[in-house]
Every structure is written in structure tokens, then in C-alpha cells.
Amino acid sequence: MVVSDFGSGYSGSISQGDKAGATGVDVWSLFDDTDLVEERSAARTRSEPEDAEHADSAPSCLDKDVLAVILSQAGDAIALTQYQVPAVCRYFYSATREAMCWRHLCLSPSNYLASSAVTDDVVRRLARTHGPKILTICLDGARLLGPSAVSTIAYNCPQLQGFTAVGCVGIGFGAMRFLCKSCPSLHTLRVSGCHLETDPQTEADKLAQTIAENCPQLRFLSLSRLTQEDSLEALLRCPSLEALDLSSCEQLPCSERFASLFAPAAQRLTSLKLANCSRLLSLSGHFTQLRTLYLGGCVRLSDAEGLGLLLHHCRGTLTLLSLVGCQNLSADGLRRAFGQAGTLALETLVLGGCRVYDELCELLGRQCPCLTSLDLWDCPMTNAGVSAIIQAGAPLSELNLRECRRVTGHVLQDLCESRAVRLRTLDVSFLGTVTDEHLLPVVQTFADLRCLVCGGATCTITERLLEALPLNLEALHLEGAPQLRDTAPIARLRNLMALSLEDSSASQLSQLLESLDVRSCKITSLNISGCVLDDDAILRLSSVLPRLLELEVCSTQITDRGLRAIVRHCSRLLHLGILNCDNISRGAVQDARQALPACILSFLET
């Protein structure tokens, strides 16, 4: 964790003048800089109060161990300061040096921690100062980090037990191999997407072999770009491995012996994710402890019998199953697989893009009584199939029917009438006909609704729906609702963090901006792709929403001037989409990438 002025958003260092004029406040450094020792001493001398003997004593009710525990729980909710942070007193300073405070270090960019603040220098200095105390480190999404940060961690944190750096594209698998050799106590390693662009295809396989040889206590592993079955076999022989997450494994052969590789770990694996293993045809095995099975993107998977056998063995433990995009499984094959599995303990089921018809829905209603989250995106069933699942009594809290064009808003009545449903997330965009009359009962019945997605050519909602939305709504996506005229009611949603007004008009955006309370607005993700807007509108928008982390302005008329405004005002951006913005030059894009090096900028040069 990192200590600063709790939640104030302060992100700069204290100036020399501020330090010199500080009274009764001890200036200290996260990094124990030796060049500040004399300055701290001088500051104390200048500001000695008459009751100096008691100036830095803590309240009698505040135990230092309790304070250390409190600080240790703050995590990434406290803003990282670049070099200096003001401490309340020497007692607080002392508490922050307790090992408890530094057991878990989280520097993952968020709305409270700018990605530009997480640099190699910051990580290296923290590792050198507090390395022996640190047990786990989270750097997920810190795109500015390079190999040197990880190498310094490896040198200074030999007792490290957990390391996650998902999406840190500058680290490279070479540095990760050094970390694994230096930290034999690792039990958690999540490094998907950490490869360098220059890394050879086999670097992930080398890392896998290093892990197998040096990390006997490893329990949770996330890795990408594996290309050799021998590497997978070595990983599965790790004696403590419980969860294996492999992504971007398009080059993994998945030969006839692939399923047999899992035999040594089948009785202890609780989570298996094989994302985008595009060569995988069949997967079976005696997995009796699986709680999570993710096969999303395995587009050639076709062995329904093997899948059914696998599901049957873990029917009492499996709580999450994803077959999203497994289009090669026939409708009949899916029915046979789930029929063979028997009654399942599933809570989350993702079948987006699969051949799900009404008959399978009726079967799922009978065999999945515990479903809380169901994703049927782009599936061909009708209202009858959806109703069969709802009426079976599943306690649904999340339902995705996006692009199910044979489903209409009438099915939502079943949600409102069900005593079991506790809806929090609903996606009914691009269905058949959806009107205010369909959705108003939903937002009135489910006061805990947190996310609503609707829109499309046949969605005829109006501002009546916006005026009735629950005040606690956190995400709202209105994608091309043709009858929506007034967006001002959105401003009353003070907890809203994600908003999509894709394909909206200039007047709709103007109404929203005029209504927003800048001081209380929490929006960090905004999609206005396809909207009618110009550079002036972008300038106004970016100045109103400077804390945006994600912004999509694809297929708009903005120019280099608008892009510069975004870069100037939205310095925290982690993702910026400007696809099909034909008025933006290549030079402006390069300048933006230099100004926001931690931001993923999506741009196609025409």
C-alpha cells in the first residue's frame, strides 16, 4: 500500500517552500531518501512547539498496531505521491514503517492512481526501501514499467509470495524468469500479456519451464502465448497448482494427447481457463474439483460427448462455465453435453454466440437451479426459451440478451413476476421490440439495479425511462435509441461511473453536459462513438470530465485540435478509441502517444 493524504487526490510532491514553512508536521519520504534526513531535522528544530514532548504522541486510544492494520487495508484507494507525502506526526510516520503496512503493495492504475505515476523509478525505490516486508505486489495495467522494475523486485523481495502484472506489456518474459528464480516461495503469478513485442514466440515456453523448476509452491498461474505442449505438461506437474489460466494460445498444438496432459492435476485443479485455444477440438478428463471452466474462443471445440463427461465429473463443484464463441458445438451436441452432465451447481453460465435454442433453455432451467448470471448474447432462442429459464426459479442477478433478435421486451415481464430474481445487471440491446412499457416495470421492481444496457433500431425508449432509473445505477449504455430526445435526466444518477451514448445527437450531448454537476460527477468511462460532435464539443466535454479512464470517440468528426484537447485535459486515460476519425493526422496520434504513454490508443491510419 502507499500512504498519502487519504483520498484527497493529491499527486504532487511538497515544494521546498511548503516544507520550510511546515509547522508541527514531520516531512517524510516513502523511499527513506538520505538527502532528506537533515531537512527533516531542520524542519523539526524550526517548528519546536512549547509542548514538544507531547507533540508527536498519539491519542491514548490509538494503538500503533491497530493503525498499521488500518493503513494496510487502504490498498489502491490511497493516491500515490511521487516522492514526498505529509505525515500527521512522527507517530504516524513510525506506524507506516511497520511491516504490516507493506505486506501488500498495490500500484495498479485506477481512478485514484494515475498510470503515469507508476514508473520504473517508483517501483525500484519502493522495492529497495520496503522489499523485505513485501509479500504480494499488484502491478496490473502499469504499462510504463520495464524489465528493470521486476529485476529490482526480484533482488529485494526474495520472500515474495504473490506477483500480478497482467497487461504490463513492457516487462517481458525474460525479467519474469529472473523473478521466478529469485522468489521460490511464489504461490501466485499472474503475468498474462507481459511479453515484449520483440520477444520470440518461445519465450513463454521458457518461462513455463522456469516456473516448473523453481516454484514448487505455486498455486495460481496466469500466462499467455504458450506454444508447446511440453511446457504445459511441465506446468501441470507443479505439485501445488490449483488454478491455470492460459490466454492467447492460438499456437498451442492441442494434439490427440492434449487431454491426457491434465491427468496429473485433474484431481486438484479448481480453475482451468483455456482462452482462444483455437486448435482445441476436444477436452475431457476426470476433473472432480473444478469450480471454474473457461473455454471461450475455442472455436473448433466440437466433442460434445467429452464435454458432457467432463461436466458430469465436476457437476457438484463447478460454479462458472464459459463456452462463449464455441460455434462448432452443434445445438444437438450442446443438449447432449448438458443432458449427460446432470444437475449442475452452476452460478455463472456464458453461452454467447453458441447454438442455444428453446429446447436447450428448457433443459438449463431444469438442470441449473442455482444460476445467478446468464449470458445468452447473440443466441437464436425465442421468448419461450428465456421464459423457461426464468420461470424455473433461478435466482438471476445478471442477464445478457444482447443481439438476441428473436427475443422481445415482453419477456421482461417474467423477470418482474419471479420471486427468485434479484436483478442487478441487464443487457437488452439490439433485441426485437423494446419499449418504455417493457423496461419501466423492471427499473421500478429492481431497486438494486446497477447496470442497464439498451438501444438499437427497434428500441423505442424515451426520457420517461431515464426519469425512473434507480439513483444507485452505476453503468448506463444507450446505444442508438432513436426516440430518446432528452438526456438531462441522466445527470441525477450521482453514482454513474460508465456511460455510453453511442450514435447520439449533438443536442443530446449538450443537454447532458449542461446538466452534469462537475463536482460530484463520477463518470470514468464514456463512449460517444458515432455521435455528431466537433472539436468545440470535445473541448467542453474533456474539461468537464478530466478523470476519465476510458473514452471512445470513434467515427466522429474531431480533428487534431480535438485530440489535443483530450490529451491536455484527460491525463489519466488508460484507453482512447479514435478509430475511423478521418480528420485526425498521424502526427497528432504520435504526439498523443508520447503525451499519454500508458494509454492504449486505438487508431487505424487510412
UniProtKB/TrEMBL annotation:
Stretches the record annotates as Disordered: 1-20, 39-58
Ranges where the F-box/LRR-repeat protein 15-like leucin rich repeat domain occurs: 342-471
A Pfam family reported for this protein in Swiss-Prot or TrEMBL: LRR_6
Entry's Gene Ontology BP terms: SCF-dependent proteasomal ubiquitin-dependent protein catabolic process
Gene Ontology cellular-component terms listed: SCF ubiquitin ligase complex
InterPro entries linked: FBXL15_LRR (IPR057207), Leu-rich_rpt (IPR001611), Leu-rich_rpt_Cys-con_subtyp (IPR006553), LRR_dom_sf (IPR032675)
Name by which UniProt lists this protein: Fbxl7 protein
Gene that produces this protein: fbxl7
